[in-house]
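Subject: for your reference before the review

Hello V.,

The reviewers asked for a structural picture of the protein, and I figured it would be easier to keep everything in one thread rather than splitting it across files. Below is the amino acid sequence we used in the manuscript, unchanged from the supplementary table.
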Amino acid sequence: SSGINAEWPLRPGSKAKASKIVRELVDTFLDMGSKTGLEIPLCLECIGWAKSEKRTFLTQALEARLILLYHSNGDYSEALNTVNRVMKELKKMDDKQLLMEVQLSESKVYHTLGNVPKARAALTSARTTANSIYVPPKLQAALDMQSGILHGEEKDFKTGFSYFYEAFEGYDSVDHPFAMDGLKYMLLSKIMLGVPDDVQALLTGKMGLKYRGRGIDAMKAIADAGKKRDISIFNKTIAEYDDELKKDPVVQNHLKSLYDNLLEKNLVRIIEPYSRVQIAHVAETISLPYEVVEKKLSQIILDKKFSGILDQGSGVLIVYDGSESDQTYTYALDTITHMGKVVDVLFKKAQKLS
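And here is what came back from the structure prediction:
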């Protein structure tokens, strides 16, 4: 990548052709995802050359890629600064596809920073821009993927699954490696929806045969833990597939709530056969500290996930049967409330007559 400005081989010929070749070369190198550490310097050098040659469109296209490089490198302030600068220039140029790409990149940066409202606003702008132009399959898939991720942040995994499916189809149609991520997030959505059986159903079809890897295996193992309501299988999966789970920010965002849900189901499974049970026995069965189990049981009772009380003096959980509570008092209060409204209406009518 060194010496681009000094000995640039594409100086002769048409500017349009040269710009296209440069962009394709840069895109090909960056899409390889090799992470050599040369990506940002290469992009900056190419931007410098494009500016010196007064190739405005190429400059903006390369700066759009630079935003994603800053994002993946963790340089979020540089990414947002570049977004703001490029957006102003693109609005003057009226290049809607490139504008949409930058708006999508902005959404990704804000999501990583935890600012979901701004990420949602940027994505809405990107979709609005996309409505008026032709969007290539790869770019449409990126839009759908980001939509699925943001719906997941709002715990709307049903809608999120639909977007991940569209993203998977789009990436799969152009044989892009991100199709694997789309499938992985589809499986994650099914797990978060509490239907782990659907995971195996999805993987028995054509997509399961074509896409295999440790990321998919990790989702299968977590689905198995969810199906068996077994927290120990979950913890073993986290340890075995640490890279695939904890280094994926989308999966990482949902691991805690996934753990909490599974712990809750595991505890309910253990205490189901009992009317009285020692908390120490539950903690030993689930292989977790006594204090953790006691705190979680208190939370489950307060959330009315099951009926019972904790006798902390004797360290015993007393479980009530699931019989329905007597609704007589509730119905009586409702009747009194309605009668009160009737009396108020009659009183107003009586006042008018008098």
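For the response letter, the relevant points are probably these. The beta strands are 276-278, 308-311, 316-319. Confidence is low (pLDDT under 50) at residues 1-8.

Happy to draft the paragraph if you're swamped.

O.
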